[in-house]
Write a structure and sequence with these properties.
- The strands form two sheets. A seven-stranded mixed beta sheet has the order 9-8-10-11-7-12-13, with helices on both faces. Strands 3-2-1-6-5-4 form a six-stranded antiparallel beta sheet, with helices on one face.
- The radius of gyration is 22 Å and the shape is globular.
- With 384 residues, the protein is an alpha/beta fold.
- Helix 11 packs antiparallel against helix 12 and helix 14 packs parallel to helix 16.
Length: 384
């Protein structure tokens, strides 16, 4: 809890978040059964699809539950009661909805998406851990923790969908929360992990509930005296531009992108800007970038769990020069020899996980950027 020298703690974000569904006692019995099965099987996601049985995603693989297919009417009957009146009105208008559903102590919280497709109404629920994981629990390299020590700049966490980006970001925010007496502002769509103030003073805002857009929230943030801003995702030109401006203005900004590695992350950021502005943005990014963490979750050999493979780029003067001069294709060469600065290549992470038996050699090879290197390091013959 905050010390007496700090500002009084604000109400928890849970009390301000988007209205969750009704109390767990009102959950339709079929949904309660599905939620329970997801928890018992350690699932990360639940898929409800009209015309099909419910499906769980466990360790990255989809598994049907031994329940009968759900008709279009049945899907609506089990899904609509989880919405309050305002959410149902919005869903009827847009036919799409992102929100966090709170199933109470029994089931926990879920990042949820409702949508309509050819067969009818569908939904995807992603289970959210009640406890914010630590860097150690996620087995993240120490350098990722050191990136949070910066007072200004941009830190990007990237990777494909379902690669744990939000969880890594939450662990980084939790580390700052435990170590710095500063104001942390999060802007999310929707709010996933609930952070309790520790040393830091925390404000959590949800797009669509507490603010209209990421851009509106970021513009307002300039006057809300944060030290650290967490933005759920860089989705468009406005958000990207405001994040770079915030970093240049003196804030530390943590955010995510759906890109697989450092080179394509930088390319994606530059690509949202008109060509005439890209030289200026390269110069700004070369100065403000602190690091890029790219990650993916890889199934274990027994298929019962997943291991986190990580690539880390740290913005040294040499890295900054390559970005400024539009020579990002040379980044891997500097990253290969950047171990002393805390840099790590994805292939090296895959090799380490395979050697430790956390993933198979085949998985490491299938995800490798440099097949020849991974084959040599893991002693995989050309015939395999």
């Amino acid at each position: 809890t905050p010390t007496t020298a700090q500002k009084p703690a604000r109400p928890k974000a849970a009390a301000q978040a988007a209205p969750a569904g009704p109390a767990t006692g009102k959950i339709p019995p079929t949904m309660a059964k599905i939620f329970q099965a997801a928890l018992q099987n350690g699932a990360s996601d639940i898929h409800i699809t009209s015309g099909h049985p419910p499906v769980l995603r466990v360790a990255g693989a989809l598994r049907e539950l031994s329940l009968p297919p759900m008709s279009t009417d049945e899907c609506r009957e089990v899904l609509l009661p989880l919405l309050n009146d305002e959410q149902q009105r919005r869903f009827d208008e847009t036919l799409d909805m992102d929100f966090c559903y709170d199933g109470g102590e029994k089931f926990g919280r879920f990042r949820t998406n409702y949508f309509v497709e050819r067969e009818g109404m569908d939904a995807v629920f992603r289970l959210i851990s009640e406890k914010v994981p630590t860097m150690e629990e996620l087995k993240l390299p120490e350098q990722i923790g050191r990136l949070t020590e910066a007072s200004t700049g941009i830190v990007l966490v990237t990777g494909p969908k379902s690669s744990g980006k939000t969880t890594t970001l939450a662990a980084m925010i939790d580390l700052i929360n435990n170590t710095r007496r500063e104001h942390i502002l999060t802007i999310e769509d929707p709010i996933e992990f609930i952070h309790t103030p520790k040393k830091a003073y925390l404000t959590q805002r949800e797009v669509g509930t507490h603010t209209h857009t990421f851009g509106t929230a970021l513009t307002g943030a300039m006057h809300e005296a944060p030290d650290v801003i967490m933005v759920g995702e860089l989705r468009d030109l406005e958000t990207t531009s405001l994040v770079i401006t915030a970093a240049e203005t003196g804030f530390l900004v943590l955010t995510t992108l759906h890109t697989p590695d450092a080179i394509r992350t930088i390319g994606r950021i530059l690509g949202v800007f008109p060509a005439r502005e890209q030289a200026q943005i390269r110069s700004m990014l070369a100065k403000s970038l602190r690091g890029i963490v790219s990650q993916q979750l890889v199934p274990s050999p027994d298929g019962k769990s997943q291991a986190l493979a990580v690539e880390v780029l740290v913005n040294t003067p040499a890295i900054g020069n390559l970005i400024r001069e539009n020579r990002t294709f040379q980044l891997p060469s500097l990253m290969q020899v950047g171990g002393r600065a805390g840099m790590m290549m994805m292939d090296d992470s895959l090799i380490r996980l395979a050697r430790n038996g956390e993933i198979s050699k085949d998985e490491a090879l299938a995800r490798a950027a440099d097949d020849h290197k991974v084959r040599g390091e893991l002693q995989i013959s050309a015939e395999e």
